[in-house]
UniProtKB/TrEMBL annotation:
It is a single-pass membrane protein. The chain crosses the membrane at residues 52-72. Residues 21-35 have a biased composition (Basic and acidic residues). Residues 1-35 are annotated as: Disordered. This is Cytochrome c oxidase assembly factor 3. Its main location: mitochondrion. InterPro entries: Coa3, Coa3_CC. It comes from the Eukaryota. It comes from Amazona collaria (yellow-billed parrot). Component of 250-400 kDa complexes called cytochrome oxidase assembly intermediates or COA complexes.
Length: 103
């Protein structure tokens, strides 16, 4: 079993590829390379921020849609309940008229 100092198939330790490089402390980098790395990181951060905003707006829209649909459904239920009560009242009035006409 590989120990902590073991290397992977490519000769690089398993965690070495995930280590963050600080361009200011890295020896052997030219100023142009450092500048390029900072520009690339800035561009990636900007893109990620844009995606996060879009994701937040999407989640907000879905949440608002669920709430709107819920409120609409509840109001429809109340409307149908009120309509049902009106129908019952109309049937009762019709029965009363039919009984008074029969007597």
């Amino acid at each position: 079993p590989p120990g902590p100092g073991a290397t992977g198939k490519s000769g690089v330790s398993p965690a070495a590829f995930a280590q963050r490089i600080d361009p200011r402390r890295e020896p052997g980098l030219s100023p142009e390379q450092r500048l390029h790395m900072e520009q690339v990181e800035r561009a990636l951060r900007r893109r990620l921020r844009g995606r996060n905003v879009l994701l937040a707006l999407g989640i907000g829209a879905v949440t608002a849609g669920i709430y709107a649909y819920t409120f609409y459904s509840v109001s429809q239920e109340r409307f149908l309940d009120d309509l049902e009560q009106e129908v019952e009242a109309a049937r009762e009035r019709a029965r009363e008229r039919a009984q008074s006409a029969a007597s």
